[in-house]
Amino acid sequence: MTRSLEPMMDFFLREKGELVYINSVKQLALIRDATDTIQTSDDKIIRAATPLHTGDIVDYRYERYLITSQVDQNEKSCRGRMRKCNQRLALNWDGQVEWFDAVVEARTFSTETGNVISMPEGNILVSLQDNADTKGITLSQRFYMTHQPFRIVGMDRTMNGIIQLSCTLDSINTAYDDVENNIADKWKYEIAHTYALHINQGTIAHVLLNETIQLNVTVMDNGDEIANPEITYISSDPSVVSVDQHGQVMGIALGQASITVKLTYHPTILSTIEMRVVEKGTHIYSIAIIGNSVLKTGQSASYVSHIYDHGVEVFDQAVEWSLQNQDDSIPIMGSITASTGNSVTIKAGSSSGAINKALILTATLVSDPNIAIEKTISLKNLF
């Protein structure tokens, strides 16, 4: 008597399933390659106990996939075919830029003939999740891919859950297009941006074995902090240190690995921290300074120190503050006007000699002066 596989699905998912995110919701799923032969595209078969739909976005092993097939469904599970998104495309609506994960092909499979059809040179087919954002896409809209501009010349919404765009190579507009960052018409609506990303725990942090800590990251744009930035986290060795898409780090095995943190839409803006997995024992302190990296002459700003033990913030330690010019010159182009607990207020000098200079604010742990951190504060003209 043949035993049905379906009643055992819960067992297989529990024992062999991997954690994935389906439309940003964590789920267990069984994943296998869709074919045994090497293909130009990365296709996989996904099976999950939760509902799957054509057009669902699946985050799997630091890669993003789009479910491109119809979904088989029975009482125990759903099954579908997914393809790795090989491009991220930025579409611009009068200055409102939205990024989309996409499957881009220079050839496609014909259901009528059963053959692979090569598209004309300079033409591509783009498949996206059909959602509230992509519904706003219009004909003639432009976007960049690998620093080349394309224009949408056709749209197909007949496949439920997916929108397909027929696109042709367009001409570069150097006056408006941000070619380096693949954004069409960017400078038509906004000024240039200067981004900076800072991991507040410093360059080295510790996490206890089988426990977690949260990475704290600050992203600045032209000196102003960005609220809720889109950030990507990658571990150099997930078998030692794992990190999820929200920056939560877990110590898997004793040892060390690096975590790279980058702006999702500007991947050249990044920072790296070395995570060391340790057992419970002595204190391992680190300090982070939170505050604006740019200060205008004659104005004041407050800064706060956060103290961590094994990467977890503690509140029974204190710091001492000091201030100096970045070039060690005299007089100092600023002063400490107030210091309360682990916070301090800095006032920038008002003389013209302070413009385009920089201050170094240092926080030193009172209980261990060997532990300190510096923050560079650039001085800019008030006007």
Automatic annotation (TrEMBL):
BIG2 domain location: 213-261
InterPro entries named among the record's database cross-references: Big_2, Invasin/intimin_cell_adhesion
Pfam families named among the record's database cross-references: Big_2
Protein name: BIG2 domain-containing protein
Organism, scientific name: Paenibacillus terrae
Taxonomic placement: Bacteria, Bacillati, Bacillota, Bacilli, Bacillales
